[in-house]
Automatic annotation (TrEMBL):
InterPro entries: Rubisco_LSMT_subst-bd, Rubisco_LSMT_subst-bd_sf, SET_dom, SET_dom_sf, SETD3_SETD6_MTase. One of its GO terms (molecular function) is protein-lysine N-methyltransferase activity. Residues 33-285 form the SET domain. SUPFAM superfamilies: RuBisCo LSMT C-terminal, substrate-binding domain, SET domain. It holds the Pfam family SET. This is SET domain-containing protein.
């Protein structure tokens, strides 16, 4: 921890020297005016907190283009790397593969790398799906998720093999040539790069990559909080007028971060107002929990963008023209607009579908009977999916608390309360990692935990959907009965 603190201090000192700043006025420290590095145990660990009260839309951090780590900036500083990478034989490698090779090459330089203070602060390991072993993949339970994990590992393996010739030409140290090292480099790129217009691989952004994530859609409406801030400022005194103008211009900004050509820097803005000490979050994009796991190695307890796809019969898909991706259940358990419309039409006799098409596409119910039929159908479908999984939602909740209590594998395991299937899973985990060292067994534990957490969030959506459908069916039933009396 102390060593980590030392690395962090070096990073911040170096960052100030190379022009990274969270302040528009000059100073010799990179952070402290708007942001501080802090630890947020329940939302991403190390991250950036507000060093003072921050206003929505305010500029928080500026990172000059010259210090962004990209293929271009790495090649500029190293002739050998530049010659090898520009060799036409490697042109089939993707921009991400090239950046991964460059990153490993830079790591191999150790202390003499210009980026050393930055590289020393990168995580030592990651939990993205591609790093999941067989045990952790199976713990996801749901076929689509297991398949996504298998595909991620296969893709990483394929890309590693393709990049091997270039890595050998660069004479990387043996430990940097391994698949493990490749996974580390690709996970660094996947979970930390930011979009830039001139390189599809994106850039690694010192200090800017310390922002943790919050899902878009979580912040209060921009207009609502703008109104409050404007009201506060105008009521302060007339010196607030300049701030008001600034605020109006800030409010036009739609993103919380991006490369700005006119200042030749990556700029980060507050996407909402923060109180001093609160964690300042960035929205990397709109992701489901499985996608967060795949690209970033974490997931959110309450992810407004999470969704569950339920398998539908071919004739259901063909009864409507909605794209397949739009037929899902929302994180709150409600079926999507397109799923409801599709089922309403499918449940209508074929010869009447044409006449009700306009009602269906406007999202209207067709009749109480039609609505009760499709909601019962969804509820039954969700129940069947849940029954076919080897553990229940309740089992997984208890298993998750049991996993949290595993400190080391020699201590007696907490097997009370958990179901016999989960007990078997705990024993299988122990058997699976017993061969590995203590460090990797704790890494496996974290990945296993993420897999269980993911399947739990998946099941919660189905459980909530069943309650939602059953509640509406019951109210429609009463409505129907009272209208017949
Ligand atoms: C760009 S980095 C953010 C800084 C990172 N916490 C660090 O210490 O370097 C992205 C990584 O932070 C973690 N992370 C970000 N937001 C998170 C959140 N809301 N919950 C859990 N982990 C999060 C994930 O490991 C993710 O891959």
């Amino acid at each position: 921890m102390e060593q980590g603190q030392g690395y962090l201090e070096r990073l911040l000192k170096w960052a100030a020297e190379i022009g990274i700043s969270d302040s528009t006025c000059c100073g010799d420290s990179c952070l402290g005016h708007s942001l501080d590095v802090s630890y947020f145990p329940s939302a991403g660990g190390r991250g950036l907190g507000a060093a003072r009260d921050l206003r929505e839309g305010e500029l928080l951090l500026k990172v000059p283009k010259s210090v962004l780590m990209t293929k271009e900036s790495l090649l500029l500083k190293d002739e050998k790397l530049s010659l090898s990478v520009n060799d036409y034989a490697h042109h089939s490698l993707s921009p991400t593969q090239i950046l991964a090779v460059c990153l490993l090459y830079e790591m191999g330089k150790g202390k003499i790398s210009w980026w050393h203070p930055y590289l020393m602060n990168l995580p030592r390991s990651y939990d993205i799906l591609a790093t999941f072993g067989e045990f952790e993949k199976q713990a996801l339970q749901v076929d689509d998720a297991i398949w996504a994990a298998e595909k991620a590992t296969l893709k990483a393996e394929y890309e590693w093999k393709e990049a091997n010739a270039l890595m050998k030409q660069l004479k990387l140290k043996p430990q940097l040539l391994t698949f493990k090292a490749w996974l580390w480099a690709s996970a660094t790129i996947s979970s930390r790069t930011l979009h830039i217009p001139w390189d599809a691989a994106g850039c690694l952004c010192p200090v800017g990559d310390l922002f943790n994530y919050s899902a878009p859609g979580e912040e209060p409406s921009r207009c609502e909080s703008m109104e409050h801030t404007m009201h506060d400022l105008v009521n302060e005194d007339t010196s607030g007028m300049a701030d008001v103008e600034q605020l109006v211009s800030d409010s036009r900004r739609l993103t919380d971060g991006g490369f700005e050509k006119d200042v030749d820097a990556y700029c980060f803005y507050a996407k909402k107002s923060y109180k001093k000490g609160e964690q300042v979050l960035l929205s990397y994009g709109t992701y489901t929990n499985l996608e967060l796991l795949e690209h970033y190695g974490f997931l959110l307890n309450e992810n407004p963008n999470d969704k569950v796809y339920i398998p539908l019969e071919p004739e259901i898909y063909s009864s409507c023209s909605w794209p397949k991706e739009s037929l899902f259940i929302h994180q709150n358990g409600k079926p999507s607009f397109a799923l409801l419309s599709t089922l309403r039409l499918w449940a209508t006799p074929q010869n009447q579908r044409r006449s009700v098409g306009h009602l269906v596409y406007s999202g209207l119910q067709l009749s109480i009977q039609n609505e009760m039929f499709i909601l019962r159908w969804i509820s039954k479908k969700c129940t069947t999916i849940l029954k076919n999984l080897s553990t229940s939602f309740e089992d997984d909740s208890l298993l998750l608390s049991a996993i949290d209590k595993i400190q080391n594998l020699d201590a007696p395991l907490e097997l009370n309360n958990v179901s016999s299937t989960c007990r078997d899973e705990i024993c299988a985990f122990k058997a699976n990692v017993l061969q590995k060292g203590e460090r990797s067994s704790m890494e496996s534990k974290e990945r296993w935990r993420l897999a269980v957490e993911w399947r739990l969030s998946y099941k919660k959506i189905l459980v909530d959907c069943i309650s939602y459908c059953d509640e509406i069916v019951s109210s429609l039933f009463h409505q129907n009965n009272s209208s017949q009396k």
